[in-house]
Design brief:
By secondary structure, the chain is an alpha/beta fold. The chain has one domain (11-155): Phosphoglycerate mutase-like (Rossmann fold, 3-Layer(aba) Sandwich). Helices cover 27% and strands 23% of the residues. It contains four helices and six strands. It has helices at 40-52, 67-80, 94-100, 115-123; strands at residues 16-22, 60-63, 84-86, 105-110, 138-145, 148-155. It has a six-stranded mixed beta sheet, sandwiched between helices. Helix 1 packs parallel to helix 2 (67-80). The radius of gyration is 17 Å and the shape is globular. The relative contact order is 0.22.
Length: 157
């Protein structure tokens, strides 16, 4: 007797993976500068993020409109020939964000006081605290697949 197993996936259950990071290390010489550039360590970290995300099939990149966030993802965007989509943390409608990124591997870069809140809103739970101002190595991963949601925090140096 021969059995054939056929599986049909519901198209509305496409898997999505959202990676969220804080910008790389910034210049700290002028505390009044609201838009500082990356420092040397920051430029190196931006290159390391590019290497980290090399095999992650990133299809969309979102950044706030600041030098430090844009320059953190610029090497990856350039390498993968992707446009950097500008967002404002104050204006995100999270349900719309999830719907427009369904089935995508998406990278979001923001700030120590916005990325944890972004993740918390995606998972609909107050789970992650703000990032320490000297920590630039957190990587939050939110996976949504087959109507299930998983999230984790890892450190990438």
């Amino acid at each position: 007797m021969l059995f054939i197993f056929v599986s049909f996936e519901n198209p509305s259950d496409e898997c999505s993976k959202i990676y969220l990071i804080r910008h790389a290390e910034k210049v700290r010489t002028d505390k009044s500068d609201r838009d500082p550039d990356l420092n040397n360590n920051g430029f190196m970290r931006a290159e390391n993020w590019k290497k980290y995300f090399f095999d992650k099939d990133i299809s969309k990149i979102y950044s706030t409109n600041y030098k430090r966030t844009l320059k953190t993802v610029k090497p990856l965007a350039h390498k993968n020939n992707l446009e950097i989509l500008i967002y404002s943390a104050d204006d995100i409608v999270y349900e719309d964000f999830l719907n427009s990124n369904e089935g995508e591997n998406t990278l979001v870069v923001g700030h120590s006081n916005t990325i944890p809140d972004f993740v918390n809103n995606l998972i609909n739970e107050k789970y992650y605290e703000q990032i320490d101002d000297l920590n630039n190595s957190n990587l939050y991963i939110v996976s949504i697949c087959n109507s299930g949601l998983n999230h984790k925090l890892i450190t990438v140096d």
